[in-house]
Specification:
Radius of gyration: 20 Å
Number of helices: 9
Strand content: under 5%
Order of helices and strands: HHHHHHHHH
Largest sheet: none
């Protein structure tokens, strides 16, 4: 069994989880601009060195934590049908956007991205890109099954998947009625030109 070299930093998972929780709660309470490494370390019950062993800067820390939180909630489940896949995928998106902590973080990160091109690019690369990759797998699977047209504009289709939920929940802050998901799935199926689903 390999031994950790003497003097090497061992990143303990429970410490990383405490830091992750602290980052998310500090972001929700303070926002990107006012979040400090000191406050995160204090909240996590660790020294600042524990943060710097994992990330080189506040920006890197926030990007990594939010990406891990967000991408892990983008499901990639094959239910056997496009309708089923859409239902699972869109429900996961609703759950992501209504998470009690993350729902307070996202608007601030979007605003920060408008002011900070580096933040916007990091979010695109580490959150938006991987989440879209998973949606693309679902769409191409449906194309292979003949449920979607072979010439589907996949980029536009991915926009159609996320936009209604984001607009309703984050921009409008409108309620999600009990039948909203069912209605949305049917609407998206029609918008994508789904066949016999």
């Amino acid at each position: 069994m390999a031994r950790t070299p003497t003097g090497a930093a061992v990143l303990q998972p429970e410490v990383t989880q405490a830091i992750t929780d602290a980052v998310l709660h500090e972001l929700a309470e303070q926002g990107y601009g006012r979040l400090s490494m000191e406050a995160v370390a204090k909240r996590a019950g660790v020294g600042k060195s524990a943060l710097y062993r994992r990330w080189t800067s506040k920006h890197e820390m926030i990007t990594a934590v939010v990406a891990e939180f967000s991408v892990s909630r983008a499901v990639l489940e094959d239910t056997g049908s496009l309708r089923g896949d859409l239902r699972v995928t869109l429900q996961a998106m609703i759950d992501w956007l209504t998470h009690p902590v993350f729902s307070r973080i996202l608007p601030d990160l979007v605003a920060e991205g408008a002011r900070n091109p580096e933040m916007a690019e990091s979010a695109r690369a580490s959150i938006g890109g991987p989440r879209r990759d998973r949606a693309e797998v679902m769409l191409r699977r449906a194309m292979d099954r003949g449920e979607l047209p072979a010439d589907l504009d996949v980029e536009m289709a991915m926009d159609v998947l996320g936009a209604p939920i984001y607009w309703r929940m984050v921009v409008r802050r409108a309620p999600v009625e009990p039948d909203y998901l069912d209605r949305l799935v049917e609407y998206v199926l029609r918008a994508l030109g789904a066949q016999d689903v």
